[in-house]
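Dear H.,

Thanks for agreeing to be a second pair of eyes. The structure we're designing against is below in token form, covering all 495 positions.
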């Protein structure tokens, strides 16, 4: 687009910016809850509504089209990860790795402590690798199989997996969202992580206690030993089970922990899984290759085992990829046309003090997750907008960085059409509406953060020295602006 072309004549008011969001939510409720349909169509209707309103306020169709492309471009890294996870699941199931995890999980994990234990395991794994998606796509898939085998409801297992995975994603120095929140607010990474302990540790304690209590109903008295033995027998008959196969996920964890980028680390895991399929499980080369594309095929005669292991491959991820693309077109139009900014600024106006500002930041991040369908934007946009507001109230930047993660990182998986919610649903086989009530960490942290803000707990203000430095910077900025104005320089306006 030419730099001299006028893009927008009039800013879009709050009332009009709200319409696409309301339309999308209403249609989403009808399609997903009532009609049991996919979220694709509601998101497309929301995008069309946003595009129509934007044209009424001076935006050209060319600009709107570019906004859609910009949204999709932001999702490309996520799409690549989704495809790689599909390949990982296919190769790991074919290589007997998932079967081995399920086998030893059934033998070693106590049913009454399963929810507690799997949440703790996901915490540790994600802390080590920094990726909630990798944890859900590997440990999470195995956990769903184990939970199903011992009659624990799938939404409960999925909630425990997600709580653990997002604790690690939030607190790991290797996490991209953790680094993004620290970077965009100008906060030291480890100061940011230490400051998040105020809200994240209580959230984890609440979640673990809840999973411990919920797990008590699945004690040994309720365990169907015959069913477990049947599953173990089917796994032994269908796969070569060996503890050596567990070295494959360990190797991937080590690679990522040593700061190998996610894509090469996952590629190494795929290659090792494929090799195990051919040489350990004695599969045909052509079958192993087809598994990467089409997923693993198993006909064991046990319906539950077949349901668990007939999955994976690139083809299985295409629904997730298409939903990600559709969601990001909606997000791209909402952000690039200024409608999201109008919604967020309205929230900012209600912030009268430190507690109000922190609450507004968390609410803005949650709203951004729902409107743009992308976790990164929920950190980037409020982060950019609220930096100055936190400075004016003389609040340390770590308050902002923590609020962004308390509202953005942690709630993204609770939104069914967000890329994180879409991915979790596709991996764990449970919708966000089903696992949401059991993802205890994810909805408790925003509540804890807002409560602490109003109680004044963990709200850190600038020292007198820092306040003086900010005042000097503001004074210098005003003097520079005044000097520019008096010298007759005028801003360049595009014609």
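And this is the sequence the design step returned. I haven't edited it by hand at all.
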């Amino acid at each position: 687009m030419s730099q001299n072309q006028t893009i927008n004549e009039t800013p879009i008011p709050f009332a009009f910016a709200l319409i696409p969001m309301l339309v999308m939510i209403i249609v989403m409720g009808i399609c997903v809850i009532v009609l049991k349909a996919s979220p694709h169509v509601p998101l497309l209707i929301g995008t069309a509504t946003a595009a129509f309103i934007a044209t009424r306020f001076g935006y050209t169709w060319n600009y709107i089209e570019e906004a859609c492309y910009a949204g999709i471009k932001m999702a490309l890294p996520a799409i690549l990860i989704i495809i790689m996870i599909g390949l990982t699941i296919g190769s790991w199931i074919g290589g007997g790795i998932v079967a081995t995890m399920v086998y030893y999980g059934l033998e070693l994990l106590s049913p009454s402590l399963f929810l507690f234990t799997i949440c703790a395991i996901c915490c540790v794994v994600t802390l080590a690798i920094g990726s909630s998606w990798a944890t859900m796509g590997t440990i999470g898939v195995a956990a769903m199989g184990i939970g199903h085998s011992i009659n624990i409801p799938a939404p409960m297992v999925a909630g425990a997996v997600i709580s653990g995975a997002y604790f690690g994603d939030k607190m790991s120095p290797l996490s991209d969202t953790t680094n993004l929140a620290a970077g965009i607010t100008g906060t030291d990474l480890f100061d940011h992580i230490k400051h998040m302990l105020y809200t994240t540790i209580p959230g984890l304690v609440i979640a673990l206690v809840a999973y411990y209590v919920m797990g008590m109903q699945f004690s040994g008295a309720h365990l169907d030993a015959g069913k477990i033995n049947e599953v173990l027998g089917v796994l032994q008959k269908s796969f070569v089970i060996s503890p050596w196969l567990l070295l494959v996920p360990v190797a991937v964890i080590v690679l990522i922990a040593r700061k190998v980028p996610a894509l090469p680390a996952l590629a190494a895991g795929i290659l090792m899984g494929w090799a195990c399929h051919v040489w350990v499980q004695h599969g045909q080369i052509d079958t192993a290759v087809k598994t990467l594309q089409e997923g693993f095929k198993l006909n064991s005669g046990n319906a539950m085992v077949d349901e668990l292991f007939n999955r994976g491959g690139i083809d299985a991820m295409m629904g997730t990829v298409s939903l990600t693309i559709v969601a990001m077109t909606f997000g791209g139009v909402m952000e690039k046309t200024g409608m999201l900014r109008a919604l967020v600024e309205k929230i900012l106006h209600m912030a009268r003090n430190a507690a109000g500002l922190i609450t507004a930041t968390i609410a803005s991040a949650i709203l951004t997750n729902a409107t743009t369908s992308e976790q990164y934007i929920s950190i980037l946009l409020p982060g950019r907008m609220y930096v100055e507001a936190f400075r004016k109230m003389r609040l340390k930047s770590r308050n902002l960085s923590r609020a962004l993660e308390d509202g953005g990182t942690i709630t993204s998986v609770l939104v069914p059409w967000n890329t994180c919610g879409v991915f979790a649903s596709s991996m764990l086989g449970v919708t966000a509406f089903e696992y949401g009530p059991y993802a205890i960490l994810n909805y408790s942290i925003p509540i804890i953060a807002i409560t602490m803000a109003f109680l004044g707990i963990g709200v850190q203000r600038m020292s007198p020295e820092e306040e003086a430095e900010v005042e000097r910077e503001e004074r210098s900025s005003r003097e520079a602006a005044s000097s520019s104005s008096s010298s007759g320089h005028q801003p360049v306006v595009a014609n």
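Two observations from my side: Residues 14-75+320-455 form one domain. The two ends are 13 Å apart (CA to CA).

Warmly,
E.
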